[in-house]
Amino acid sequence: MKQTSYPRNKVKILLLENISYSAAEEFFENGYAEVERISGALSEDQLVEAVKGVHILGIRSKTQITEKVIANADRLLAIGCFCIGTNQVNLKAATEKGIAVFNAPYSNTRSVAELVIGLCVMLIRKIVDKSTAAHKGVWMKDAKGSFELRGKTLGIIGYGNIGSQVSVMAEAMGLNVIYYDIVTKLPHGNAKQIRDLPELVKQSDIITMHVPSDSTTRNMFNEEMFSHMKKGGIFINYARGEVADLDALKKFIDNGTISGAAIDVFPQEPEKNGDAFESVLQNLPNVILTPHIGGSTEEAQANIGLDVTAKLINYLEAGSSNGSHTVPPLNLPPQENTHRILHIHENIPGVLGEINSKLSGRGINILGQYLKTNETIGYVILDVDTQLSGEAFEILKEVKGTLKTRVLY
Fold it and tell me: How far is Cα 317 from Cα 406, in angstroms, rounded to an integer?
């Protein structure tokens, strides 16, 4: 284990929202002793205080990292989002402060895909209504309105990691698969890409959403889009709460167009377990409502814990920013007999030239150097002569536009 300039036992790590213990265990095994775990999310005011002095912050989907929180993060190097998305983080503010933000976009793919297939079976057979009746002592042995999946058409909206795996599993169940995506995607199996979203909706017996939340997807399924659905169609949203208009969905359930729905994500969600929850979809027939647990399996949480922690440790110890949503992705292989310095700066002209001229003017030999930029910042990894690394570090701190400078080893 290569010794870092800043002792591992002094790196302060704060993990919120009951992040899997696999994350803390991975930090401990790599020599990071100061790891604090908190079971719930924190409010903005609580975070403003809690984040002071913290080097690494781990969150899930409930914690909101606002501009105010980032402004008060005096030592924060990186944020680990132990979940699929990063929309709970103000990425602009994090980028401007040179804070790396990592997530785990693939680790719960299987968990979500399996559940979506299960929901298709439950909804097309109207199992929930029959189960509820049985619990109430009512016997509902009836085949009317209950169908097999085989031969039906599944429309997948968003053919990314989850959508494409749903596609593979759906075909194994005998479903015909069509999908819509804003970019051309290579189909799995016999799936077919449909370029026009309303046309996909018209052809589908079941629709499942697997898109991110952004300006192009918010309210994607509104009253007009629901109007294209087949009579008796089924709608599933295990993506993001902002992509579907639930009032419109209720209207089409009430009028009999949509025969069933499963919703896991909502525009407003409770902050913690036990809080009150309300939705216009409550108490509707053949509607499954779940509390944002699409990827919540023991396996997925453990995998997410390991995935994000590995990225954070690689950033701490090697400067590798691969997978970051804020710091440009760089990964310079380690070199023997060098000291490594990281430099994050505003993306303005002449920074690299100034770095090189100032170092060469002091006779400091650069043995390895990578630079990458995005619209806001630039990131440089420098391997320099071990005899002069201290002097190089002081020079780099004075470069125009510097945001962060760190000696790794």
Answer: 11
